[in-house]
Amino acid sequence: MATIVMSNDFNASTDFVYTKAKLNERGGKSIGIINNSNKKALYLQTPLMLTWGVNEYIDDNTQKKSYDLALQFPNDVYNNPECDAFLKNMQELEMRIKNDAITNCKEWLNKPKMSPDAVDALWSSMLKYPKDKATEEPDKSRAPSLKVKIPYWEGVFDKDLEIYSESHNLLFPNDDNVSINELIGKASNVATIIKCGGIWVANGKFGVTWKLFQAVVKPKTSLSGRCHIVLSDKDKDKLASAIQADNDDDDEPVVVPSITQVPDSDDEEVPEVVKNVQKKDEVTDEVTDEVKDEVSEEQVKQVAVEDAPKKKRVVKK
């Protein structure tokens, strides 16, 4: 078996073995899952799958950051043989681990004896199903997702973590300081190589972790940023002819018509403006006479008003 196993060819019964359980500094345990062929880390290559983007978490107490993403298995409408086989193999992997937990309950879980129901109560599934709104239980009639951690410690991503474009150009790490969140956005399609982190045991629960090792990213399809209009040969010829006609029009000289002044059609003569110039003394005499006439009229009116007989007020008894 090759070092990297195709996820749809993975055999949960024969392709891996466990290492001895080890205590960690937090009081939990870890049990390694390694490739049965070379006794090294188990790597699986996944099909191209939808992801909802990179999730970032910040611990309230320590302020430490962590990252993960979810690989979404397609529903029946969009399913394909590769994704269907991958899901079945992951379900078989979970089943084998739970059965082996019963056999190794003392070493793994510090339990002298366990039933399948007891194991189910402690098992934290790596396949996350949407919850049924009525029962709040996982709805296994719907497609699940697989949680994949993105290795990140002390403010630095794992040195082995790499992200490539469809043409296999290295996108991360790079010198452009582009974040993983930007490279793997919401509704991106990714094909990944994931590394099994083994079984973890903590706080009375146990489960399996997967870590991102490599990814090829196919960004979400967008209509913006490129032309999608397809012109026929006839349309192209018509457009080229129109452009040539516009260019020909631009080359023609522009004729500006001259303006000729035409006499009025009615042969009307423009009346000559004649200035009536008067001497200063004549103007003064005329103004004086006009003022006198106005004053005389005003005086006559005033006298007439004053000389008018006053009417007697008659009071009826």
Estimated share of beta-strand residues: 25-35%
Label the structural class.
alpha+beta
* Count of discrete alpha- or pi-helical segments spanning 4 or more residues: 6
- N/C terminus separation: 143 Å
> What is the alpha-carbon Rg in Å?
49 Å
Please mark out the parts with pLDDT under 50 across 5 or more consecutive residues, or reply none: 262-280, 295-312
Q: How is this structure best described in words?
A:
Residues 289-300 have a biased composition (Basic and acidic residues). The chain is an alpha+beta fold and 317 residues long. Strand 3 (22-23) and strand 4 form a beta hairpin. The chain has a domain at 4-218: Beta Barrel (OB fold (Dihydrolipoamide Acetyltransferase, E2P)), CATH 2.40.50. The chain has helices at residues 81-103, 105-109, 116-122, 180-183, 233-251, 280-307, and strands at residues 4-6, 16-18, 22-23, 29-31, 33-35, 43-45, 49-58, 65-72, 123-124, 127-128, 145-150, 152-153, 156-157, 162-164, 170-172, 188-202, 205-218. 27% of the residues lie in helices and 26% in strands. The strands form three sheets. Strands 1, 3, 4, 6, 7, 8, 9, 10, 11, 14, 15, 16 and 17 form a 13-stranded mixed sheet that branches. A two-stranded antiparallel sheet has the order 2-5. Strands 12-13 form a two-stranded antiparallel ribbon.
